[in-house]
Design a protein that fits this description.
25% helix; five-stranded mixed beta barrel; alpha/beta; six-stranded mixed β-sheet
Length: 326
Amino acid sequence: MTGLVYKSTGSWYTVKSEQGDFIECRMKGKFRIKGIKSTNPIAVGDIVDYELEESSDTVTGTIHNIHERKNYIVRKSVNLSHQMHIIASNIDRVFLLVTINNPPTTFNFIDRFLVTAEAYGIETILVFNKIDTFDEATLDEQLYMQHVYQEIGYKCLRVSSTEMKGIEKLKEMMIGKVSMFSGHSGVGKSTLVNAMEPSLHLKTKVISEASKQGQHTTTFAEMYDLSFDAKIIDTPGIKGFGVVDMEPAEISGYFPEFFKLKEQCKFNNCLHKDEPHCAVKAALEKDEIAWSRYRSYLKILEGDDENYRTDIYNDDRMESDENRKS
């Protein structure tokens, strides 16, 4: 039998059958997926083959095969730095939720996420949430951030779950697709899903005033069927986003504005760092490329991942503020 993984708790997997039934399944033995060192061999969004277990009192299943994935998105495993954790697979679109100050989302975090999504061929749309809470300074910061990414070519959306602003447009972008919501804890992923589909009653929590960080409410990634012909994967909040196994020479290829200029560099293996006659650095000096993006690139290039979980709130904002144009 073949089904779709809707939830993973590490040892049990909720699989939806082709007939629409949900079955709790376990893995049969250990899975070795070619080329992937992952802490979780099966992820939400996987298409799997399974057999029903008839011996137990309740009907359960055993997964014995994972179909080839169209794509997947990963991040570094929190405890095992040389392994990765697959957040979800077979995704049509990722909506990265961004908040300005409750909690803060930095350029560095966004850029690391976008680089990973580009590497795995997944379209990412930036959703600026909680716009109803903005004062003049916060609005200015949000619009600047939006400008940076729209200039590169990323789609951006401004929403408010409490005032239902932008919700219909967001739903239109999800029709007929498997979408994933991601972002820091507290950016309002579950609240936004509830605004689109109130019958789900997903758990939500308030932001800690002391730390300005969100509390984890989503423990495991989980897929939901929505009433407007869409599927959404709600994911646990991510504190930091370590980039996985990229060679230095390939990183700039996942910055679209760098990639466009690559052919104009004097050296075809230019890392846009110390080389002479670099088109990227020339564009940077003319303010044709955002300094925040270049700083993110250098941090990824230099493997500056040791602080990717903790150093997410202040440094990048201070850097970007220094280079903002009024």
